[in-house]
Description:
Low-confidence stretches: 1-7
Mean pLDDT: 78
Amino acid sequence: MSLPHTNPPVEAQRETADQRRTLRGRDTRRVAVVSAVVNLLLAGGQVAVGLIANSAALVADGIHTASDLLSDVLVWVAARHASVAPDEDHPYGHGRFETAATLGLGILLTLVGLGIVWAGAERMLDSDRPAPGQLAIVVAAFGIVAKEALYWYTMAAARRLKSDMLRANAWHHRSDAISSVVVLIGVAGAVMGFSYLDALAAVVVGLMVARIGWDLGWRALTELVDTALDEDEVNEAKRVIMGIDGVRSVHMLRTRRHGPEASADVHVQVAPRLSVSEGHMISQAVEDRVIEKIDSIT
């Protein structure tokens, strides 16, 4: 029986995977730094102008932006740990740092959103507050542009690096952009005499933030409990394995994600009269081919 020749060998592929992991961590941290600087400046401006112009909605939007700043810190720390190669204590790598950071971000967003809803509801019950100043409209409009730009910048990096954590952060930026639209409408309405619209906008923003946080947290939680790859990826892995000379069937294939990467445990059936050496060569061929053909499995 002729056994398949794998090129490059698995050791070289692992070395390449380590290099990709290092570069990926560096690029992710760069995105986090850019995002943090923008969020720091924007959050400070929104909260300050919101207080000066008496706009609860703009203050809420500033708090929302500040939560983005905290998420940028989480992304930076998680990317630094996740880019470390597997070691004796972490044989599956450090990708779960990214998952844990995403879960933390989801919890943070949910709590922040509920807090904004509470504050906005209290504001709606207080009818004696003066209307916001027109400066709040200008800052709200600027916030839309800044957050939408951050969304496209971060999402482009997330797609290039295949990072769920960056994708989560990008949607956080998009939620800020959408919330700023709501804030702009609410502030403009309040300036024209409909004072309750400012508080109502704050409540809507809070609900949006809480919903996004819940979705992100739930997705990260399912990964932490070792949810398998999706059906298409599992079927593709089986197809690759069955294409290897000497493999009669795939008896078991278990997969699990850890951050941007995944691992697989495979049990294949071969001819019963093969020598141990021949069986080992087939198993090595399976490992090499799966790592080569399935991007997420390392």
